[in-house]
Amino acid sequence: MGAQATDSGAATALKPYYAEYRTTARGMSLTLERELETDGEGHYTLTNGGKLLVVGFHEVSVFTINDGQIQPGSYVYQGTGLINRRREVHFVPGSDTIRSLYKDEWYELPYTEGTLDRMSQQEQLRLTLLTADEPRQDLDIRIADGSRVKDYQLVFVGDELIETQLGLVNTLHFERLHDDPDRASHIWLAPGWDYLMVKTLHVEDDKPVEITLTSGNIAGVPLEHTSTSES
């Protein structure tokens, strides 16, 4: 991550939360449930999943936090129903390789400091912004995904007011850069809600997939009772 951290003891900055999102794609809608749990000693479990008729998925990321940096442990994705697809990513402390299961084949990927999995990188984004002197800047991210390690950049677009079922929410808008001009990815995060994801938009082959926050709580406090102003 490119932002300058100001608090090395940032493990307490990630509060547990529960959030529901509505995702729309190809004329269909699906409710996603995401939850971050912690044992209070720096160990975190992030879950995410949803189901539509006979197709669904569930994914879990386990990690710890050390000096403001997430230390990923494992990531597991399991498709259910008609699409019974599984992915796994395992990080071994002290090892210079990452074990990744993709399309029924195991890969040994190179590990460098700061490499994350598909889910823990989302929480590292929040953690980085929470501890940054200035969150409105471009960010670099590295994730182990499938058969390779990927580097990409999030470019800060601007401050935007997003309309949701919870009302209008102040957000910071970032765009992920792609080599393919036919692909586009955007994310909106709420400073007043610890940079919780409010909306994402991904477009590929002219097919948009949009995910928007509908309800949730942070540390047991409902989002509608939490200020959406900047902290």
Provide tags for this entry:
DUF3108 domain-containing protein, mainly beta, disordered N terminus, 5% helix, 15-stranded antiparallel β-sheet, single chain, DUF3108, 231 residues, outer membrane lipoprotein receptor (LolB), chain A, globular, 1 helix, disordered C terminus
* Percent of residues in β-strands: over 45%
Relative helix content: under 10%
Q: Number of DSSP strands?
A: 15
Provide the residue-averaged pLDDT.
89
Largest sheet: 15 strands, antiparallel
Alpha carbon gyration radius: 17 Å
N-to-C span = 21 Å
* CATH-level-2 architecture: Clam
From the spread of the alpha carbons, the general shape counts as globular
Number of helical segments with 4 or more residues? 1
Question: Which structural class should the secondary elements be placed in?
Answer: mainly beta
Extract low-pLDDT stretches. Answer: 2-11, 227-231
Order of helices and strands: EEEEEEEEHEEEEEEE
Number of domains: 1
CATH topology grouping: outer membrane lipoprotein receptor (LolB), chain A
Q: What's the CATH class, please?
A: Mainly Beta
What does it look like?
The protein is globular and about 45 Å long. It has a 15-stranded antiparallel β-sheet that branches. The chain has one helix at 120-130, and strands spanning 17-25, 28-38, 43-52, 55-66, 69-81, 86-91, 97-102, 105-110, 139-145, 148-164, 167-176, 183-190, 196-204, 207-218, 221-222. With 231 residues, the chain is mostly beta strands. InterPro entries: DUF3108 (IPR021457). Pfam families: DUF3108.
Structural topology:
Elements: E1 17-25, E2 28-38, E3 43-52, E4 55-66, E5 69-81, E6 86-91, E7 97-102, E8 105-110, H1 120-130, E9 139-145, E10 148-164, E11 167-176, E12 183-190, E13 196-204, E14 207-218, E15 221-222
Antiparallel strand pairs: 1-2, 1-14, 2-3, 3-4, 4-5, 5-6, 6-7, 7-8, 9-10, 10-11, 11-12, 12-13, 13-14, 14-15
